[in-house]
Amino acid sequence: MRRKRLNKAACPIARALDVIGDWWSLLIVRDAMRGTTRFSDFHKSLGMSKNILTRRLRTLTGQKILELVPAADGTAYQEYRLTDKGRSLYPVLMSLALWGQDNAPTNGPKSHLVDREHGQPVRGVNVIASDGRILKAGETRMVRTG
User: Fold this and answer.
1) Tens-place pLDDT, residues 101-129
2) What domains lie within the chain, and their CATH numbers?
3) Distance CA 26, CA 63 (A)
């Protein structure tokens, strides 16, 4: 069964999911934000099949979330690097991490998001109105343009 394309949807959430809406893609971006750059390191970290990893990396480079560049160490290898578009997914991943640590129970080891400099828990990712107010669910709406 082929997946329905959402790239022409008016809703920006639907369009975003069309680009990065599977867990493997988000986990690849997560690892790239942690410094992973090589295919073999993504494969080792994620434990996914090579053919799925190849497809996801191809999609992420095609969407300009990652770019393929010569290896930094001067070898013949190539590396995957986040683009500005890819780095702009940071608040999305942090929102998912914060939601997950509070709402997705586990029987295994847990991780918590902390500020690297001070080691203190991160409090949240907020949606800010143009006047500086923190907006909550129900205080926004989508307006069609164009």
Assistant:
1) 888 888 888 888 899 999 999 988 899 99
2) 12-135 (1.10.10.10)
3) 13
Whole-prediction pTM: 0.86
Q: Taking the CB of residue 7, how many other CB atoms lie within 10 A of it?
A: 9
Token pair, residue 2, equals 């082929």
Amino acid at 84: D
